[in-house]
Amino acid sequence: MGLSIVTDRFDVVIVGGGPVGMALALRLKAWNIVTLLLEAQSLTDPVTDSRPLALSYGSQLILRRLNVWDSLASVTPIQTIHISNHGHAGQTLIRSEDAGVPVLGSVVNYHGLYDAFYQMMRQQNVTFQLGAKVTSLTHQPDHVQVDYEQSGETHRVDAKLLVLADGGKLVSQVEGIHFHTHDYQQWAVVANIQTSIGQRGIAYEHFTLDGPVALLPSDTGYALVWTVPADQVDRILNWDEAAFLSELQVHFGDMAGQFVSCGKRTGFPLTLKYASPTIAPRTVLIGNASQTLHPVAGQGFNLGLRDAWELASELIRSANFAADVGSSRLLSTFASKRQIDREGGKFLPIRLQNCSQ
Ligand SMILES: Cc1cc2nc3c(=O)[nH]c(=O)nc-3n(C[C@H](O)[C@H](O)[C@H](O)COP(=O)(O)OP(=O)(O)OC[C@H]3O[C@@H](n4cnc5c(N)ncnc54)[C@H](O)[C@@H]3O)c2cc1C
């Protein structure tokens, strides 16, 4: 394996080209802040992740500003949220008109969002490298040295500011940042479901003793996120379709009609990971690298997108004054502005989980 000579210096190097890293790269491009995005996956590993993402109305507005919204292949609006507790007759309904917004949120899927971001990055000539797996980070007083492997070669670039948007994989290489973790001992089983009456713009959150079940309106049917105990996930993923639908019907009830068919099922392990602090010299964490939440809150990407937007705002402000984009002052300002939003996201899933107990 060869090592290419240091030639490239960037204001900002973003590690991780998930939707949060791409959002930051796109916004910085519009302001000519010299940025490189490095993503480990290559074009030959197409992103097929089918997880549904419920986006807040605020996220919709940000995605519009980034010109990504109109390229999304499938967007299903949420007009009403229906919250219920297993074994209790009552329910809570939240309607868009009560909140004074045209929609409470919208449902997209991860790979559709990924594709829309990727097309916009190409259209806007964002500088990025695919198949570029970052392997080592070396902190110097005035830059961070980033080594990555691509097509059997090791490359090296320097960044005034390193942004980790990698889901948290490289944080162990950054001194002073620690993860608080909580293993929920649960998995999320995700699948597209069709019902006898089709979806009517209602997102259901149903709390049970095993954890919450969410049905998000998606196209004509629903995207299911079913929280199951870790020791039962293999059994549930391997049920035949008829057994799966009938067990789900018993677990969820008939609020959304009869479950008539389901697509491919995928399981995701659920862990709360929370970095503290989120900044280190010339380094900042955003998105899942900063906080990985329980999906029932439907907040992980929404929070990550606000991380990206707020960080870009600080960088743009600093670049306008020709200031150092990696300064500790800028990073402290960013971290303190994000604190209240992060705290809400951290405790919401635990509060919601306790609702059913
Ligand atoms: C079942 C489920 C349902 C969910 N539902 C919702 C929802 O309704 N609403 C919501 O807001 N959120 C939801 N989430 C959370 C949401 O999916 C995440 O918060 C979001 O995907 C985080 O995006 P990210 O870009 O920070 O990280 P990721 O999407 O994890 O992207 C990280 C990227 O970094 C790359 N990478 C990793 N290591 C390296 C390296 N060494 N070098 C280069 N690149 C690297 C990876 O290849 C990847 O592309 C859900 C999650 C799950 C599991």
Oligomer: single chain
Ligands present: flavin-adenine dinucleotide
* Beta-strand percent range: 35-45%
Question: Helical proportion?
Answer: 25-40%
Architecture of the largest domain in CATH? 3-Layer(bba) Sandwich
Instruction: Give the CA-CA distance, first to last residue.
Output: 54 Å
Describe the structure.
The structure is a single chain. The protein is α/β, with parallel strands linked by helices and 357 residues long. It folds into two domains: 2-68 and 111-180 and 271-355, FAD/NAD(P)-binding domain, CATH 3.50.50; 77-105 and 189-265, D-Amino Acid Oxidase, subunit A, domain 2 (D-Amino Acid Oxidase, Chain A, domain 2, 2-Layer Sandwich), CATH 3.30.9.10. Helix content is 30%, strand content 36%. Strands 1, 2, 3, 9, 10, 11, 12, 19 and 20 form a nine-stranded mixed β-sheet that branches. Strands 6, 7, 13, 14, 15, 16, 17, 18 and 21 form a nine-stranded mixed β-sheet that branches. Helix 1 runs parallel beside helix 4, helix 1 (19-30) runs parallel beside helix 7 and helix 7 packs antiparallel against helix 8 (328-355). The longest helix has 28 residues, at 328-355. The model is unreliable at 349-357 (pLDDT under 50). The site of flavin-adenine dinucleotide has 34 residues, from helix 1, strand 4, strand 10, strand 13 and helix 7. Flavin-adenine dinucleotide binds next to helix 1, strand 4, strand 10, strand 13 and helix 7.
A few lines on this structure:
With 357 residues, the chain is of the alpha/beta class. It has eight helices and 21 strands.
